[in-house]
Amino acid sequence: MKRVSSFGNVDLLFEGGIVLSSIREVARLAKVSPATVSRVMNGTAAVAPETRKRVLAAIEETGFIPNEVARSLFKKSAKTIGLIIPSIRNPYFTQLAGIIDELAGKEGYRIFLCNVGGDLEKEKAAIQMLVAMNADGVILASGNQEIQSFLSGCPIPVVALDMMVSAEVVEACVYCDYYQGGRLAMEHLLECGCQNIVCIRGPQKIFSARQRYEGYRDVCRERGIPEQTVDCDYDFLSGLAMTEKLLECYPQVDGIIASNDIVAISIYKILHKKNITVPDRIQLIGFDGIDLSELMSPELTTVCQPIEDMAKTALDVVVRQKENFEKETEYILPVSLAIRETTKRRGREQ
């Protein structure tokens, strides 16, 4: 018998990868020792054919299912990776999770999805639970910088996704060049002839939102253009409310940089209701490059993150972390501009 103490003060009692209360019942029915049941279940040693037959019959009679947590502790791998995201309602994270799940399956891993709603305490609880499950690693997308202190001493690998975290507490950080994305968006609208551009800033406590805004801000400073901003959360309903405020504060607006694609879609909805044409009256650009940006009509011009590359990079770090392979502590992936139907360059026919 072995006792395992884990991160988060969780203790488990197991023997040979099987919880003791269950293994003893099977052993009693088969008239063998618990160790023999363990050998049959885990294939760790030869067992006489007749004895093996009795054990399997007892397992079938009791309907016994080996405890996966205990089995993973015994094997030192659960073949499970935790994915912690702030909101499943955000299509960006839904798309990201789908790609990670598909790629993980090809590597023989399962994804355990934790939707924490951006709540710091829920993030901590999710990490504790994944440690107790003996997960092989965690991919963490968080807007809470305070999580860094909690990660110190975490016994399983953590990859920070879409955020900047100290290399001392995570295996690696994987994110995009959000600053360049902010610059690309502003420069594109200027090329399109916009003169009254408003930047929708995402929550500034979030690294990606702060970097996007700073890219916009620096272009304004270089060109001698006054900043015009409105703050907004990364969700559809916030986007609807913010658009009404934006039109009141900046009635002459002719270009809008949205904090993300879902907010851009909510902006378009309000503009359409008010019979404000896009891109003739107001030009609109999003950020993320989610599938919906291309499915809407008109198709949304957006700064695209390489979502699949981000997913693959984060997963590779977790899966390969036990191998002696060359890995960085920081992966900054490039963004690109997808010019579609919500913007129109000077002299360009739609």
Report what the structure shows.
By secondary structure, the chain is of the alpha/beta class. The chain folds into three domains: 2-75, Orthogonal Bundle (434 Repressor (Amino-terminal Domain)); 80-176 and 308-334, Response regulator (Rossmann fold); 178-305, Rossmann fold (3-Layer(aba) Sandwich). Helix content is 44%, strand content 19%. It has 13 helices and 15 strands. It has helices at residues 20-30, 34-42, 49-62, 68-75, 91-106, 120-132, 147-151, 178-191, 207-223, 236-249, 261-273, 291-295, 307-320; strands spanning 2-6, 10-15, 18-19, 80-85, 110-115, 137-140, 158-161, 172-176, 197-201, 229-231, 255-257, 283-288, 301-304, 330-333, 336-338. The strands form three sheets. It has a six-stranded parallel sheet with strand order 5-4-6-7-8-14, sandwiched between helices. Strand 4 (80-85), helix 5 (91-106) and strand 5 (110-115) form a beta-alpha-beta unit. Helix 1 crosses helix 3 (49-62), helix 5 (91-106) packs across helix 13 and helix 8 (178-191) crosses helix 9. Mean pLDDT is 87; it is low at 1-21.
CATH architecture of the largest domain: 3-Layer(aba) Sandwich
CATH topology of the largest domain: Rossmann fold
List SSEs in N-to-C order. EEEHHHHEHEHEHEEHEHEHEHEHEHEE
Number of domains: 3
Number of helices: 13
Helix content: 40-55%
Low-confidence stretches: 1-21
Strand order of the largest sheet: 5-4-6-7-8-14
